[in-house]
Amino acid sequence: MRTKMMVVILTILLGGLILTNSYADDLSRSKSEPASMMHKLGRGVVNIFTGWIEIPKNIAIEWKKSDPFSGFFIGFFKGLAWTWGRTLCGVYDVITFPLPIPEHYAPLMEPEFILPDIWGADFPHYDEPL
Fold first, then answer.
1. Are 71 and 63 contacting, i.e. CB atoms less than 8 angstroms apart?
2. Are 8 and 24 in a shared domain?
3. pTM of the shown model
4. Is the same domain home to 40 and 80?
5. Are residues 41 and 18 in the same domain?
6. Shared domain check, 102 and 50
7. What would the DSSP string read from start to end of 63-95?
8. Tens-place pLDDT, residues 9-45
9. How many domains does the chain have?
10. Is there a single domain that holds both residue 3 and residue 49?
11. Distances (CA, A) of 66 to 55, 61, 75, 92
12. What is the pLDDT, as a whole number, of residue 12?
């Protein structure tokens, strides 16, 4: 009797988890106006706080393309430029999140996040992925 009750409880919990996960996926793919606004706000906040990651990322990319010495310096200055760009785009997204500019709340930079593979997107960036 106790084993049957445990199986029923576990089945209900597993079913609830599956339904909740499915509902969350539907919400994240929603194209509604409020969802797009909140995505733009979130993108802006993430890019403000993670823009500095462009420096080590670009150092790694340039390091792979050339030798460590020149890869470090070229990657550092490239990363510094991308850091400013990503951070300023984040500030712009936070300030203008209620407005559908650019059209349909599109990102100003591609990829829209510094490490898109972490947030579930592909990794099309600069010259080659890390």
1. yes
2. yes
3. 0.63
4. yes
5. no
6. yes
7. HHHS-HHHHHHHHHHHHHHHHHHHHHHHHHHHH
8. 656 655 554 544 444 445 455 578 888 889 899 999 9
9. 2
10. no
11. 16, 9, 10, 34
12. 62
Binned at pLDDT 50, 70 and 90, residue 103 comes out as confident
Find out whether 60 and 99 touch, Cβ atoms under 8 Å.
no
User: Are residues 10 and 50 both part of a single domain?
Assistant: no
Q: Do residues 81 and 118 both lie within one domain?
A: yes
Q: Roughly what angle, to the nearest 10 degrees, separates helices 33-50 and 68-95?
A: 140
pLDDT at 121: 47
Integer Cα distance of 64 and 126 in angstroms: 13
**Which residue type sits at 36?**
S
Domain that holds residue 12: 1-30
Residue 106 has what pLDDT?
A: 85
pLDDT tens, position by position, 72-96: 999 999 999 999 999 999 999 999 9
